[in-house]
DNA sequence: TGACCAACGTTAGTTGCACCAACGATTGGA
DNA sequence: TCCAATCGTTGGTGCAACTAACGTTGGTCA
């Protein structure tokens, strides 16, 4: 931790939803980033692995659409993951524009490890909330996010 | 809007609080950024103006602590704001290390304008929520944020 | 068949924000 | 008086989101 309001932030901000969202996200991102770093991973990597695990072998463009990472960034991520043996990249015989990305057994193992890691982080982040409050927060954020998707 | 999940994001992510927070924040940041840009302003500028309005004339270090902007970034922001006539910077006679930053009348006017602008944004962001849900969301985020502050 | 547009992967950027390291000047306390 | 801390400032870093452009390939339709 470094800065973090010694004094009180403007009350104006304390009640402004968009400010709360970004501040909470900054804190969450920091913790997530630190924790993933202990496993030599970044957020993008986790997202791509998760998308592949849930959707099965996909083209890079599909991965990009599924996990909200730009296709131009997927390139670098897949390069990394291939280098680590967590996914395979092979040309799609049916469409030579595409690469088929497949998560490997090692990749699945890594993903499970990261899942456990991130589960811990969730618990830390939501520590001050009851179980009901946690699910309510997730629900509300889900609604807001869904609304953002259509605009 | 540019990417935004045409397909469904991994369900794993859809229920992970930290992911929801950052995704919602990304969307909120984009809208806030765009809207502030129409007033030739960025988030940092608004934060500094708000802190000055609520705490009165302050040193740059105080501003930094009050609004969660790094003091090294406050320098550039204050430079901008001085250039636009929205704040004054003058050396503190009682402590020659410090500058006293004071919001000007024009600055207050600008701040009011930005307040109105951002109020609209809040409404758009929280459109899918009832009034009760909005206050509940703010409350929950506040709790999480407060918890982050002590760590 | 050929022309054309769309999709794919890739490269090489830019922008915004958080954050860090180091410095000279100044201050306050031991 | 010396030392540690604070302040403003400069010049960075890292990460994520995003854009522009390009060559290749595929599907469409005149």
UniProtKB/TrEMBL annotation, chains A, B:
<dbReference type="InterPro" id="IPR000835">
    <property type="entry name" value="HTH_MarR-typ"/>
</dbReference>
<protein>
    <submittedName>
        <fullName>DNA-binding MarR family transcriptional regulator</fullName>
    </submittedName>
</protein>
<dbReference type="Pfam" id="PF12802">
    <property type="entry name" value="MarR_2"/>
</dbReference>
<keyword id="KW-0238">DNA-binding</keyword>
<dbReference type="GO" id="GO:0003677">
    <property type="term" value="F:DNA binding"/>
</dbReference>
<dbReference type="GO" id="GO:0006950">
    <property type="term" value="P:response to stress"/>
</dbReference>
<dbReference type="InterPro" id="IPR039422">
    <property type="entry name" value="MarR/SlyA-like"/>
</dbReference>
<feature type="domain" description="HTH marR-type">
    <location>
        <begin position="14"/>
        <end position="146"/>
    </location>
</feature>
<dbReference type="InterPro" id="IPR036388">
    <property type="entry name" value="WH-like_DNA-bd_sf"/>
</dbReference>
<dbReference type="InterPro" id="IPR036390">
    <property type="entry name" value="WH_DNA-bd_sf"/>
</dbReference>
<dbReference type="GO" id="GO:0003700">
    <property type="term" value="F:DNA-binding transcription factor activity"/>
</dbReference>
